[in-house]
Here is the input.
Amino acid sequence: MAITRTKTLFPQLLIALLALCASAFAEKQTWWNEEWTTRKAITIDTSAAAGNVTEPIGGATVLLRLFEGNWPLGAKEDLSDLRFVAEDDKTVLPFHVEKLDLTLMEALVWVKLPDVKPNAKTVFWMYFISLDQKATRAEDMKGSYDSDATLVFHFSESGNPSDSTKNNNAGELPPTPSGGSFIGGGASLNGKDAVPITPTPSILWTDNGPLTISAWVKVAIGKPDAIILSRREGTKSFVLGANGMTPYIEIGGQRAEAKNQQLTANTWAHVAVVCEGAKTTLYINGEQATALGVGMPGMNSVITISGDTQPGAVGITGEIDELQMHKVARPAGWVLFAANGQSGDKAQNFVKLGDLEIRKDWLSWLKTGDFAIIVKNLTVDGWIVIVILAVMFVISWYVMFSKVRYLNGVAKGNEIFMKQWRNVASDLTMLDDEDVEQSKTLGGRVTKENVKPLRKSSVYRIYHIGVEEIRHRMKSDRDQGVRRGLAGRSIQAIRAALDGGLVRETQKISSLVVLLTICISGGPFLGLLGTVVGVMTTFAGVAAAGEVNVNAIAPGIAAALLATVAGLAVAIPALFGYNYILSRVKDAKDDMHIFIDEFVTKMAEFYKEKNSNE
Here is the structure.
């Protein structure tokens, strides 16, 4: 007789499926905070392919222009769950939102970077969508600039210009606002109404002291000696202006006009002045335009935008935006970085937002998106049904795993035993020595590695029953030294003992399988019960509220349907597992039936009765 061992593909397929699920829900990557589920990488590219900034930059505050194409979808409307983290995924970066327009899906966000690399890529992260329902705004306008920044006017507020740094400088008069300026709001200038800035200790200039001034300027009409920004104190003076469309700087009466850099009417230009020792340099759009061989004089008087304290001074006609002052001489790389990074067209290649990354784990899956809405709207009765179904789910999988494992052991043990059984020709008891230790190894015929699997063989246990019955009936023959064989009634009695062993083995193999049938039939009905009760509760709540709308009904119905889904999730795997186990149980029973028939046939042949009087 040949017994073919059933291939155990079910466990292997199940393990492969679980491994696939685990790989889908676990990412081997760092994550700043598990409460934040979504992020995008932001790359500042200063290489020749994008920004082409080769000189040192240092720390800088970067402008991010968010629009419909790169909007952090899923973030709170007020962007209160927005966070920025350095490339190390540990250091939280200060930031603030200058402009937020939900209708147009536009936002201007300034982020402070401790160091920007020249001719390379600097990466940091934008996190959003928080699981923490209590997450509040983390904006830090005053912390978005380093201690060397003394004044920053965004001109986005109504009224007098206010400082975005910790120094709290302010303009004395409100300029005419310009809503559609270069970066958010701006100030419209008519050439007559100047905007004075109150002097404070933070904007005190020292003789030949370091200083950086930058702004975005748009000149509408070119006029002779039009002033962009000026400061005077006695005989000391500083003027930044445009003679027609030619930008210039003037210190103490000494003037230097740009040689090759001209302004274009109604076009925005980045203008910067850097003073370092006895040299003052003018930059236009990040490129050096001219320089003076004198330093900045020490002053602590009023600073005037689009005007001067001298009679007859004329300011520029146009607009100004993003006026900044720093008490250090920023390097040329910083000036070019600001000009490229804050511009509209160049910034698209200079500042790039990467693809959306979602933290894929069980926690985020359970707490975010549509599933979170369903769970939040589950009623108490729905939770009771879900818990019961969860218990049934665990039980069904435990039964399937344990039963498949047991059947695998039975099949392997039967295979080991049957290899030896095929060699039995006459003495049926040769594989079951009366010595217990010898019996464990089938009289030394089985290796020690196969002893443990052999104990699980159902066929071997039935064989052991038959051998014990034969020995019991042949005991008197052995004592008298004769061999009379077995009578027909004895063979029938042994057959009955073998059938009894078969029944007990079948019960052992089939134990707990009934739990799978309960899960298959009961799971969907329990789920349906939970759904019906949930729908009833939802409609009762709507009726009590007296208001019918989709937003009131949909979450409750969706949550109620979760019970049916849970019931099917219990029943479907249990159904597949049950049918697979049933086929394995049938194979094991067939093996035992075939063995019993062979054993009885050989027993009747080998122990045929002699000198019978029947």
User: Anything to note?
Assistant: Confidence is low (pLDDT under 50) at residues 1-28. The two ends are 33 Å apart (CA to CA).
